Amino acid sequence: MQIEPLKNWGVAEDKPWVISGPCSAETEEQLTETALALVEKGVKTIRAGVWKPRTRPGTFEGIGKDALGWINNIRTQVPEDVKFAVEVATAQHVEQALEAKIDVLWVGARSSVNPFTMQDIADALRGVDVPVLVKNPINPDLALWIGAMERIAGAGITKIGAIHRGFSSHKKTRFRNIPSWHLALELKREYPELPMICDPSHIAGDSALIAELSQKAMDLDFDGLMIESHRDPANAWSDAKQQVTPDVLSEIVEGLSIPTASS
Ligand code: PEP
Ligand code: MN
């Protein structure tokens, strides 16, 4: 895999690279209000789920393409260096996201587990220069995670990052998805240039654990954090328990102690 270090991506000057925003884009007002509050707090990359891979049918499955238009309306209200990230799970999502000039794409855990899905996504990315973040698959299989990224790399994408969002388990633990820090570190050892992002929101499933998990990721020298935030977490249409307000997000980030290279 040929991987460009994060400093060449043009998305993040600071460490950690903070990516934050709602689990789902719900309404234009909700997305705009949340994004503007985050930008006010210094967040430079806004996430929003537009197509939602829900575990069971009958729940909110995302607004779809229309939300890409909302993102482009928000662009006119924020500085140019603010970037937007969305999840893609099909070739059609990739085409629509690229057409809307979305800056960063990510692939979710229910997609990275499937080589056919990854190949379809990779094929739709051929000849494009866009950063792609790949979440770990739902099961703790490092080869499958690497394979998913290799397919993206095989399409010529060099700005590839990994997101650790924990692994499904039937065991009841304090986490929604159990982290495997050693597996993430093994990946980091194998690919030292690969930016490693932690998603404490989907690991935790609980907003009360986000600060602790974010600090753990910093202590392990992760490059960034993807944290779900919402103007009104309690009334979110998806993942209500794990989202934080933009104010709390900012407190969490301000409270991090970032180890320096020499410490
Ligand atoms: C998400 O980021 O909202 C999401 C669906 O994540 P995951 O793929 O980690 O479940
Ligand atoms: Mn979510």
Structural notes for this entry:
The chain has 263 residues and is an alpha/beta fold. The chain has one domain: TIM Barrel. It is 36% helix and 13% strand. It contains 10 helices and 8 strands. The chain has an 8-stranded parallel beta barrel, surrounded by 6 helices. Helix 1 runs parallel beside helix 2 and helix 5 runs parallel beside helix 6. It starts with 16 loop residues before the first strand and ends in a 9-residue tail after the last helix. The structure holds phosphoenolpyruvate (PEP) and manganese (II) ion. Residues 23, 49, 53, 87, 108-110, 135, 165, 202 line the site of phosphoenolpyruvate. It is an enzyme of class 5 (isomerase). Keywords: Coiled coil, Transferase.
